[in-house]
Amino acid sequence: QVQLVESGGGLVQAGGSLRLSCAASGSEFTITAMGWYRQAPGKQRELVAVISNGRTDYADSAKGRFTISTDNSKNTVYLQMNSLKPEDTAVYYCSAEYYHSNWRKSSWGQGTQVTVSS
């Protein structure tokens, strides 16, 4: 199994920036895609951004403000969040899709809280 550990959440004022990081660890795995999701209180978890083989895709709410990137040498994915709004407040989860012994699997991180004050 791949373990994902997120970091970088916190409290920021509207208009500010945060960078989330998510490091994957384990043995004998090949990551095919990594992404960020978020879940606000009382709402369903939603996709924020995903990256696979260098291609990125963003939720409309993230386009132009958030940037997803990876450091493949470190099996780490980042989410740079700029121009943050109070509605971005949520728990942000990292996800990874990978192959392990020819089996396709997925993992989730434990989540990191992002709070944007107005």
Could you give a quick summary of the protein structure above?
With 118 residues, the chain is an all-beta fold. The protein has strands at residues 3-7, 10-13, 18-25, 29-39, 46-52, 55-58, 66-71, 76-81, 90-100, 103-108, 112-117.
How are the elements arranged and paired?
Blueprint: E1 3-7, E2 10-13, E3 18-25, E4 29-39, E5 46-52, E6 55-58, E7 66-71, E8 76-81, E9 90-100, E10 103-108, E11 112-117
Parallel strand pairs: 2-11
Antiparallel strand pairs: 1-3, 3-8, 4-5, 4-9, 5-6, 7-8, 9-10, 9-11
What is the chain-wise order of helices and strands?
Answer: EEEEEEEEEEE
Measured by DSSP, the beta-strand proportion falls in over 45%
Distance between the termini: 40 Å
Q: Mean pLDDT, as a whole number?
A: 96
Task: Give the low-confidence spans.
Answer: none
The oligomerization state is single chain
Specify the number of helices. Answer: 0
Class derived from helix and strand content: mainly beta
Number of strands: 11
The percentage helix is under 10%
Global Rg: 14 Å
Largest sheet: 7 strands, mixed
Describe the protein's architecture and organization:
It is a single chain. The strands form 2 sheets. Strands 2, 4, 5, 6, 9, 10 and 11 form a 7-stranded mixed sheet that branches. The chain has a 4-stranded antiparallel sheet with strand order 1-3-8-7, with no helix packed on it. Helices cover 0% and strands 63% of the residues. The protein is elongated, with a radius of gyration of 14 Å. It has strands at 3-7, 10-13, 18-25, 29-39, 46-52, 55-58, 66-71, 76-81, 90-100, 103-108, 112-117. It has 118 residues and is mainly beta. The N and C termini lie far apart (40 Å). The model has no long low-confidence stretch (mean pLDDT 96).
